[in-house]
Amino acid sequence: MTNQFKTIILCGLFLLAVGAFSASAETDIFSQKVEPLTTLDCARCHEQVFTDLRDRGGAHKMVCRDCHEQFHTFKRDLSWEQRVPACTSCHGEPHGSEADMIDCLDCHSNAHAPVDSLSLELLEPLCARCHAEPTQQMQQPSAHSELGCNECHQQQHGSLPKCTECHEEPHSPFESNAGCMQCHPVHNVSIMLYSETIPNNACAGCHSQPAQQLKQGHLAHALLNCTFCHADEHGNTPSCQDCHDTPHSPEMLQDFAGCNDCHGNPHDLLPGA
Fold this sequence. Notes:
Elements: H1 3-31, H2 39-43, H3 47-56, H4 80-83, H5 88-91, H6 104-107, H7 120-123, H8 127-130, H9 132-137, H10 149-152, H11 200-203, H12 208-216, H13 226-229, H14 241-244, H15 250-255, H16 260-263, E1 264-265, E2 268-269
Antiparallel strand pairs: 1-2
């Protein structure tokens, strides 16, 4: 074996030894326990994260160690998701039973700016996962069903617009300021809903004349709520016989077939009624 060949072999063995030592040392570095760092220490490498927390962190504006208790520990068998802290360790399930239907980061895309990172364009395809009932209501034909969620909820997640931002006030002033949603379900506006206990002055927003007649009246009908007669659905006009049966003889009804012929307007009964 020549001296030149021996030299080549020795150099190769030396390089292998150095490589093995370096690999071992590199692995050892990741397995070493890191002493606690200050937030400013972290910011030296994670400048954008620090800026996000400082400017947009909201309730997450804390020192890094509050969430990241382990520093740069590296285990090959752990995924990225397993290394970062779980949101539920602090927040529980703030969105109720729907929380398991969606990952927190699907909506809060930046954990260091949790509210500010709620992108409405990103959220719109996901709205139905948490807001199933409004999504189903929007399937019913109406002017609102042609809109996307973001067209009304456009400022930020959870923002509630005023109806008058799009719709000029179509009704006379509400005496009780009942509000549009007292009668119009906002996600299915073509259906008129109201409870049996809705006050007459709410109905007066649209039906001012009959409401005023009832208010000034002193006979039996003046004591009733609008919904006592106009029950079930908006626009329903009851028959007098629903309450009064047929108090007059057939002979009289031959000459006066309609109750209003004698009793006048049901909202403003004649004194003899």
